[in-house]
Amino acid sequence: MTAPTADIIDGKAFAQGLRDRIRARAQALSERTGTVPGLAAVLVGDDPASAVYVRNKGLQAKEAGFLSVEHRLAASATQEEVLRLVAALNADPAVHGILVQLPLPPQIDPQSVIASIDPDKDVDGFHVVNRGRLVSGGKGFVPCTPLGCLLLLRDRHPDMAGMRAVVLGRSNIVGRPMAELLVQADCTVTVAHSRTRDLAEECRRADILVAAVGRPEFVRGDWIKPGATVIDVGINRVPGPDGKARLVGDVAFAEARAAAGAITPVPGGVGPMTIACLLSNTLLSACRREGLEPEQLDG
Ligand code: GUN
């Protein structure tokens, strides 16, 4: 008898489908109104991983037919320089989405920079106004990674009402907004973290487990309820057997796959969804400026 193995949730394919729909809608928007969605990315310093992310965001924005501009500032840039650039992008009517890549160099306060972005262009969904809109049911922007996780979950479970969801991690970018989205989907939600008593036992109760702790292969196979859906947000670089870096998630994949009903791989799970959702938020911003909802552009 072979061990049961979970279905693999193919985030790469799902994200491709989403980007195809976004491209079609962006084209319809431009034909109807003349507006082309514009995304401005700000990269301060030369962190190689951040540079790769920003480049990929720009490439995928262009592939979706968007206007994409990248602004680079030196690692020594002052807070005033960053704030001045954000102010110029806030005022630029061709820009519908502004993304300031994090982390920022230590001399720059990320909270002040995020607070300076026009909330209606804050396609990362990090501004306190958008946080407030998320919890109060207003029309804002949902942070891209939790939004991507939700889309994958909805595809697998069109009705999540009454399911027990455990979110592992309480970051502002992923864990907390994820928990809010799952509450809105009528799940019974637990947010577990480094101070949770008996983390494994909490996880074993989860029909849906979202792991976002940033610790390689932290969640073990015996933490997974049989048949559960596991969403792995982690992207951790660890040395591979050949000495080269290899990417692993926050979940020990092979062990978890033997127990789960469905699981996202790393890479190719949540990762591609984040950029697709950034494009989705940028299109949404452009549509709202024109008084439309993106769905109105279909057909
Ligand atoms: N750094 C890591 N993830 C993100 C993200 O989603 N948005 C921004 N702006 N920076 C990040």
Explained architecture:
It is a single chain. The chain is of the alpha/beta class and 299 residues long. It is built from ten helices and eleven strands. The protein has a six-stranded parallel sheet, sandwiched between helices. Helix 1 packs parallel to helix 10, helix 6 runs parallel beside helix 7 and helix 6 packs across helix 10. The longest helix has 23 residues. The mean pLDDT is 97. The chain binds guanine.
Summarize the structure.
This protein is of the alpha/beta class and 299 residues long. The protein has helices at 11-33, 48-63, 79-91, 110-116, 128-136, 144-156, 175-184, 199-204, 253-259, 271-289; strands at 7-8, 38-44, 67-73, 97-100, 164-168, 188-192, 208-211, 229-232, 236-239, 245-248, 262-263. The strands form three sheets. It has a six-stranded parallel β-sheet with strand order 1-11-8-7-5-6, with helices on both faces. It has a three-stranded parallel β-sheet with strand order 3-2-4, sandwiched between helices. Strands 9-10 form a two-stranded antiparallel sheet.
**Strand order across the biggest sheet?**
1-11-8-7-5-6
Structural class by SSE content: alpha/beta
- Note the gap between the termini: 49 Å
- Given as residue ranges, the uncertain stretches (5+ residues, pLDDT < 50) are none
Please give the number of β-strands. 11
